[in-house]
Write a structure and sequence with these properties.
globular, 489 residues, alpha/beta, five-stranded mixed beta sheet, 19 strands
């Protein structure tokens, strides 16, 4: 019996990992015949001690966190995960517009070769300290006409100017991230800008065409992506997030972090509530606080974040033409009263829409679906996967379903290091070198295969003026080619 492509996809287990400021998280799923994604397992470990503003600063701890997440997923699935897709988002992530021109001595018909050459020239332009990980063509201006074109193929002209959008990431951020996965012996199949992956899942064609601002209100960072005319026009990461609200409560009220987080989630922007009683009080531990005081603290920091969002939207130059309005996601978007603040501070903008869970997902264990918006990036990256990430077949579905989120914490934790501790330095170094050599050999083979597959897919895409390139695997291949010098530095 011949299997269809869709049936074969249901046998592939796709795994996505995201390195975020609050946690390193991983999810495994399978694409269903109806196109939906079935989530089989989810695991996370705290990352506050190793990742800040989305960027790795402690490589050992981050690698250990990745290994722990993979070990948890392995145990839940009763299989071995060898490869993953990753999503990235960090303070240094940003968009940049660039332009390439061609002039001709006589009327020349725009050919595919001209389009490809212009795209390649833009791709080769570098910005010091940054890597270009995504490049997309936008419009072309032909002979200075006021109406730009997205596909000028076949048009005769003497001058053409192509506008392009690049998404850049700090070079050190990208290299540290890749190095951590190498240290954890996990092969990366491909990487995606989390914010762009979210847009592909959340936004409709109408949203993109009419213009909207997609805002991911995270823990340490808030990402603003602006779309107009069907395309990404602007992307910035603000180094502010909902964890700052928690820290303010800790410092001002002199309470612990768990208490502060609970107050933030429970009361939010309390002072905006119509039933607000300014004299109402609450007991926290053995101390009493006015709810209005708590609301003031939360409101002040949240307004700072919202005003920064407004500033970035204004910087995009599309502030007045975002007719589809704001689309909010991320853990911080669950803050009570946030919609009222956004409506008040941005009265000309359409009423904001909140998205905390992607469409087209089913869950083996409902309690894994927290529906708080904090995993939108991770789940969006999962939808990008197309290759199997596990070497061994999965057990029957009913065996997986018996493992719940309540008992997943009982799964043994993985470790990057030996149980003998730091004193066994020579043994650790020897084992690490052996592991690096084995991981490098496998990485070289699999990265080359992935790059060949990606190149083949690029070549099979429809030709024309609209072009897009994800350069993550090219960057990763460069790291592998650096070899021991990079991995051992």
């Amino acid at each position: 019996m011949i299997q269809t492509d869709m049936e074969m996809d249901t046998e592939k287990t796709i795994v996505a990992i995201e390195l975020a400021s609050s946690k390193v998280s991983g999810v495994a799923g399978q694409r269903q015949p109806d196109g939906s994604m079935k989530v089989l397992a989810y695991a996370s470990v705290p990352s506050q001690s190793c990742i800040r503003y989305g960027a790795v600063y402690n490589l050992d701890r981050t690698a250990n966190a990745i290994a722990n997440v993979i070990t948890r997923l392995d145990a839940m699935l009763s299989t071995k995960i060898e490869r993953v897709y990753i999503g990235y988002n960090a303070r240094t992530l940003r968009s940049m517009s660039c332009q390439v021109e061609r002039a001709f001595d006589e009327d020349t018909v725009i050919s595919q070769q001209i389009i490809d050459d212009m795209f390649s020239e833009c791709d080769m332009e570098e910005r010091e300290g940054y890597l270009s990980l995504l490049l997309e063509s936008q419009e072309y201006v032909v002979d200075g006409r006021h109406m730009p074109e997205t596909d000028p193929m076949g048009v005769a002209c003497r001058r053409i100017s192509g506008n392009y959008m690049k998404v850049l990431l700090g070079q050190q951020v990208a290299e540290y991230m890749a190095q951590c996965f190498g240290m954890a012996s996990v092969q990366i199949l491909d990487g995606f800008v989390s914010a762009v992956a979210q847009a592909d899942v959340i936004l409709s064609d109408e949203d993109r065409q009419q213009g909207c601002a997609l805002v991911d209100y995270g823990a340490d960072t808030t990402t603003v992506s602006v779309y107009r005319g069907g395309m990404l026009r602007f992307l910035r990461v603000i180094p502010l997030g909902s964890s700052l609200i928690t820290r303010d409560l800790v410092q001002i009220l002199k309470i612990d972090e768990d208490q502060a987080e609970s107050l933030k989630c429970r009361y939010g922007l309390y002072n905006l509530k119509q039933e607000n009683d300014p004299e109402a009080q609450i007991l926290v531990g053995d101390r009493s606080f006015k709810l209005s005081e708590i609301g003031d603290i939360i409101g002040a920091r949240n307004e700072e974040i919202v005003r920064n969002i407004m500033a970035r939207i204004k910087d995009s130059g599309y502030e007045d033409v975002l007719f589809a309005g704001l689309v909010l996601t991320g853990g911080g978007s669950r803050l009570q009263g946030l919609q009222q603040v956004l409506t008040k501070l941005m009265p000309k903008m359409r009423v904001p829409r909140f998205v905390t869970q992607p469409d087209g997902f089913t869950w083996v264990e409902p309690s894994w679906n927290s529906n708080d918006g904090s995993q939108m990036g991770l789940l969006s990256v999962l939808t990008k996967g197309c290759e199997n990430c596990c070497d061994m077949p999965l057990p029957k579905m009913d065996d997986i379903e018996r493992l719940t989120s309540e008992n997943q914490d009982k799964v043994s934790m993985g470790s990057l290091f030996t149980f003998d501790g730091e004193s066994a330095q020579e043994e650790r170094d020897r084992q690490e070198q052996e592991r690096i050599q084995a991981a490098r050999a496998e990485a070289e083979a699999q990265t080359a295969a992935s790059a060949d597959s990606q190149e083949k897919q690029e070549n099979e895409k429809p030709q024309g003026g609209k072009k897009r390139k994800n350069s993550f695997m090219s960057f990763l291949k460069g790291i592998v080619e650096k070899g021991e010098e990079f991995l051992d530095e």
